[in-house]
Amino acid sequence: MNQTKSGHRHPLSQMIAEINSIFAERGFGFAEGPEAETEVYNFDRLNVAKDHPARDMQDTFWLSPKQAKVPMVLRTHTSPVQARYMESHEPPMRIIVPGKVFRNEATDATHEAQFHQLEGLVVDKGIHLGHLKGTIEYFFSKFFAGDVEVRFRPSFFPFVEPGVEVDMMLRGSESKLANRWIEIMGAGMIHPNVLRGSKIDPTIYSGFAFGMGIDRLAIMKYGIDDVRHLYSGDLRFVSQF
Amino acid sequence: MLVSYNWIKEYLGSDAPEPKEIERLLTFHAFEVEAVEERNGDTIFDLKILPDRGSDCLSQRGIAREIATLTGVPLVYDPLATPVILSDTASIIVDITDATACPRFTASIVRGVKVGESPVWLQERLASLGQRSINNVVDATNYVMYATGQPLHAYDAGKFPQVGGQYGFTVRKAVAGETVSLLAEGGKSEDRIVTLKGGELLIVNTATGTAAGLAGVKGGRFAIVDETTTDLIIEAAHFQATLTRRTARGLGIVIDASKRFENEPSRTLPPLAQQAMVDLITQIAGGTCDGMIDVYLEEKVPPQVEVPVAEVNALLGITISEAAMVAILKRVGVAVAVAEPGILSCTGPMERTDLTIAADFIEEIGRIYGYEHVVSVVPEEAAARPALNQRHIISEAIRDTLTKHGFSEVITTSFQKKDEVALLSSLASDKSYLRSTLIPNLADALAKNAPYTDLLGTADTRIFEIGTVFTLGGELGVTEQVALALGVRLKTTGYSGKEDVVLEMALLALATILGTPTWNKVKGIAECNLTSILKNLPQATAYALVPASLATTYVPFSHYPSVSRDIALWIEAGTEIGVVAAALNAAAVPLLTRLTHTDTFTSAVGRTSVAFRLVFQSHEKTLDGGEVDAQMQSIYATVTGSGWEVR
Question: A133: which chain B residues are within 8 Å (Cβ-Cβ)?
Fold first, then answer.
């Protein structure tokens, strides 16, 4: 038998490498942060107040207070890295943050307690919603190797204002994804409270942020039928990539 | 939240947009429409009201007002614009001990009502939102809450003990250990006696000191309205959003009233809701109102915010005139004045407690004008190259090396049933801890994958993972590292010892990237701490070129076991192996899942022998020996028919 047959990369790490190379070409750094995050960075610094209904938007795993010296959670999104990056760097800044995130909810074919998110952040003078739209269209056009159009619908995330839901449409391709609107991510202009909290003056600088599920991109790109395969360690799955 | 088209048409008038148009308007200018359903001559919308609009849009009137804003056509009837003409009453006294927790409390008296069934129209209105009719008084409180967003509560005045001829309410914080009896929750028959932690807000009957209920969260059986009731006390108050939420969530109670209080509705609502309630109750249950008491301790009005005109276009990436901005804001009900050239002084309408900073008003302009006007600006190439991510570069190099050595990458669960770092209130028992090492997950994956070698056409099972592990210690008490682990399994029966040869070769190959880190080796699996190794490696200077991903489409795999058979045959010298393989494959469609060429040799007399391993598998069931034999017979027939010979 063939002893030196090549192994397979996991589709998620393959995608993260592709995503990074698309964004690196446009000057985006690849930033990271801890998966076990403090309540302060996961919520407070992102304008998600304690005892506020906005906390219900994400079911949270809390670490044991007997072990963690400050209130800690498994990060529910990659957004805390926004706050960590902004407070340790000066504008202009452009980063992406791919990483694992966690939600304390029941799992099924479309929900996992752990999944991967891609965060994007740009802060500079004169950044507006048009830059957000252009950046997302640029990324998807490269990623799906086609002509992608993006549209915004009003939405709410505590760390942005205005906040939008983003739909994408792949045009003129033969792909099953083509020629229909697909809800793909949340985004918006960074909330002035979040900028101020990171010592960035919102009267001088503005910025946008977006966040999407990489697992969902994998499902779309490869037609995966059950998101749990991604974390099953099953080579009957991984060997297809 | 459910919204009835027939209900909001009372506010929008006969010119209300058709349901399809409402769906479009809300979707692109306000909220996500999760479902639209035709039901009993009505259209029911299910809207996703997010926390920013929970203050004004958790009501039928709020949604109607939003639609009116989007169309620019004012409401024909607005329950919140109806003047409050209730007289004052001296027969109720209210004592509030904490004005922050309860900034406003109103109570009115209606005497001479007849409790009974609600009129059909009211039953239908409630049914359209999935609510069941109880009696005309309770239904009226619910109706007014769904209409206006202000929760109300009705007491039987006859069962409400008085002090000096007055009905007395005390609103105070609970002391630790105090108990309160709450009405049974939906589906349960018994009342719930709750022992309080202290600090929760109670509504207390002043005469007896009995707690009537938990403010904003749930009432009790105290002075409950029943068919004998003739006189009502109606309460409509404002309770602090965060306190209500803490209490409700602490007890696991989430009801329509607490949900509304949590979202901080306007403090102007209570008397308006009282007027709507009194008008309705006297219409459907008779009686007359003796007046209302309104204790308003802490007023809160929408702030006046300066919105620079230039900032609106600069943030939205659109170009609209100041006049157009003003026109949009006026449709929202914002009081707009030009503070100085280029600056709009804006005050939101009373029910929009969410409009507090310039960005809030800018969002209103953007969404109502329409985000379709935002023009894409493609990001320019950056002047400076971004800082390189060393962890990513090294991880990519590891993936490259290990896949070349036949290792496949897995990503496994970060959770464990038992380990060091504990999680609170996890929904699943296998997620009670975080992993401190990748080794157990890799051992599981090796055992699980070992039977698949024939199916996957590999000689053995080789896997690796790069992932975060968590341990106790460090500044925060919990610390995390990125670990790398790789493992080999040769046999389905478990670790044989011979795996170490393959493993050591892989570790040797990794040494060119990682140097010689400390490897923790356990039964054919080796793990190292990548975070600490990274600190000692020279900084990489560029990202590796990423190979284009495969244009592959995932094919669901069978969950049934596979069966392997070997075949060897004599063929004529010069026959291509591919031709033989294709013939065998065609003979056993669709159960022959994989065919692997395993051996070729030429005998002393010049005959050529080729051997294959055949793997059979069904998507529908576990194959039995007979079914595989039948497949083999078909293959043998093909072999003979092709002039070859089975050895």
Answer: 317, 374-377
